[in-house]
Design goal:
Layout (H helix, E strand, L loop, with lengths): L1 H17 L7 H26 L6 H9 L2 H6 L8 H14 L3 H11 L9 H16 L18 H13 L6 H23 L1 H17 L5 H5 L2 H23 L1 E2 L2 E2 L1 H21 L3 H8 L17 H10 L3 H10 L1 H9 L5 H9 L3 H10 L10
Antiparallel strand pairs: 1-2
Helix pairs in contact: 2-12, 3-5, 5-7, 7-8, 7-15, 9-12, 9-13, 10-12, 13-19
C-alpha cells in the first residue's frame, strides 16, 4: 500500500513538472491518449492477477463481499461465475444500494449514458442486479435514459434490457457494435491461440512458474495447467482489446458509431484473413485437445446467440420475468432456440449487420456449412 502511494505521488509530480513550461495545448491531448492507452494495457495485467485468485472458497467469498465497486463491475462482471460467487457479488452491491449516493454510483458504473466496454456475461450480471433491486424494492432514481424515459422506473428498465439481450441490442446500434466487437475479439484470440506456438509456450511457462513458486498442496497447484492459462489470457486480452476499441472510437468521451462500425468491419476482415491463411484450422483445433472446447467460441456471434441463451437461463428462475419474456418476445426466443438454420440471412442481420458475404466466409472458415448455415 505504501509503495502504491509512493508511485502515485511520483507520477503526479512528474506530470506537473513536464507541463510546467508547456505552451502547446495539443500536448495535453497527446499525453492523455498515451496515459489512457497505457492504463488500458495495465488493466490486462490486473485481470491476469485477479484471475489467479480462487473465489469459490471462504476466503474468496469474503474478499468479494468486501470488494469495491470498480473491482466488481470492471472485473467480475466480465466473468462467468459459480452461483456462490454470483451471490456474493450481488450481496455486495445490494448492500451498498441502500445508500442513495452509492446506488447512483453503482447504476452509473454499470449503465453509463455513453457506451462502455462490455461482453455478453456483463449484461447478464447487470440484468440480474436490476431484477434483485426490484425484488428488494430498493428505490432508484438515476436509471439511464437509454434504458428508460423515467429514471425511477426500474420495471421499464428491466423490460428494455431483456428486450435488448434477446435481440442482441438490435435497438441500440452503438452498444451492439461494442458487443459484436467483444465477441469477435474472442474468436480472433481463439484462432491465434491455435495457430501461434508462442501463446502456448507462454502458457506453459506460466504453468511452470506456478509449479515452482507455489506450495505443493495449494489449490493453485491443483488447478494450474497450460490450458487454463490460455483461457485466462485470452479472456483478459479480449476485455483489454474491447476497452481499447471503445477508447479509439470515442472522441471527448463521445462514442463515434460510424468509425466504430468501420473498425468492426476491419476486425471481421482480419478474422476472415486468418481463417483463409489457415485452411487446416479445423484440424489444428481438433488436435489441440483443449478442454476449452466445452465453450464453443467459434460459434459465438456467428450461429449461436450466447447473450440470448444466457439471458434466458437467467430469467427462467423468475416466474414474473420468464412470463414477460415469453408473452412479449416469443419471436426472439424462437430465433435463439432454433439458431435460424433455415434462414441464415437472419443470422447475418443479427451478427453482421446483414453482410451475408462476411457471414458466409466466417461460417465457412469454421466449418458450419456442413450444418446448413450457408446461404
Amino acid at each position: 500500500m505504501h509503495v502504491w502511494f509512493f508511485y502515485k505521488r511520483r507520477v503526479i509530480k512528474a506530470i506537473d513538472k513536464s507541463f510546467e513550461h508547456e505552451i502547446n495545448a495539443r500536448r495535453i491531448n497527446e499525453f492523455r491518449e498515451i496515459v489512457e492507452f497505457n492504463l488500458n494495457e495495465k488493466s490486462f495485467q490486473v485481470w491476469s492477477n485477479l484471475s489467479k485468485i480462487k473465489l469459490d472458497d471462504d476466503n474468496g467469498i469474503n474478499n468479494l463481499l468486501e470488494a469495491d465497486i470498480d473491482e466488481i463491475v470492471d472485473f467480475h462482471f466480465f466473468r462467468a461465475t459459480s452461483s456462490s460467487v454470483k451471490g456474493a457479488i450481488e450481496k455486495n452491491l445490494l448492500s451498498r444500494c441502500t445508500k442513495n449516493r452509492v446506488i447512483s454510483d453503482i447504476i452509473f458504473k454499470i449503465f453509463p449514458e455513453e457506451p462502455r466496454n462490455v461482453n455478453e456475461v456483463f449484461y447478464c450480471h447487470a440484468l440480474s442486479i436490476l431484477i434483485k433491486i426490484e425484488e428488494q424494492k430498493i428505490n432508484v432514481s438515476c436509471l439511464p435514459s437509454w434504458l428508460t424515459k423515467n429514471p425511477d422506473n426500474i420495471h421499464e428498465a428491466i423490460c428494455r434490457l431483456i428486450r435488448l439481450c434477446l435481440n442482441n441490442f438490435q435497438d441500440d446500434i452503438e452498444r451492439k457494435i461494442i458487443l459484436l466487437a467483444a465477441i469477435t475479439y474472442k474468436r480472433i484470440f481463439k484462432i491465434l491461440t491455435i495457430i501461434l506456438p508462442d501463446i502456448k509456450q507462454l502458457a506453459n511457462i506460466q504453468h511452470l512458474i506456478t509449479r515452482y513458486s507455489s506450495p505443493e498442496f495449494c489449490l493453485e497447484q491443483l488447478l494450474s495447467c497450460p490450458e487454463r492459462n490460455i483461457i485466462n489470457n485470452r479472456n483478459g486480452l479480449s476485455i483489454f482489446a474491447t476497452s481499447n476499441f471503445v477508447s479509439i472510437c470515442s472522441v471527448e468521451n463521445k462514442f463515434n458509431q460510424y468509425s466504430a462500425r468501420q473498425n468492426l468491419q476491419k476486425l471481421w476482415k482480419l478474422e476472415v484473413d486468418l481463417l483463409d491463411e489457415t485452411p487446416n484450422y479445423l484440424q489444428l483445433l481438433k488436435e489441440s485437445k483443449s478442454f476449452d472446447e466445452v465453450s464453443p467460441i467459434e460459434a459465438y456471434g456467428v450461429i449461436y446467440d450466447n447473450l440470448g441463451h444466457r439471458c434466458l437461463s437467467l430469467i427462467k428462475d423468475s416466474e414474473k420475468w420468464k412470463s414477460y419474456a415469453f408473452d412479449n418476445h416469443k419471436n426472439e426466443i424462437d430465433f435463439i432456440e432454433s439458431s435460424a438454420k433455415n434462414n441464415t440471412q437472419l443470422l447475418a442481420d443479427k451478427f453482421f449487420f446483414g453482410d451475408i458475404k462476411i457471414f458466409n466466409r466466417i461460417a465457412s472458415g469454421y466449418g458450419f456449412e456442413k450444418y446448413g448455415y450457408l446461404l
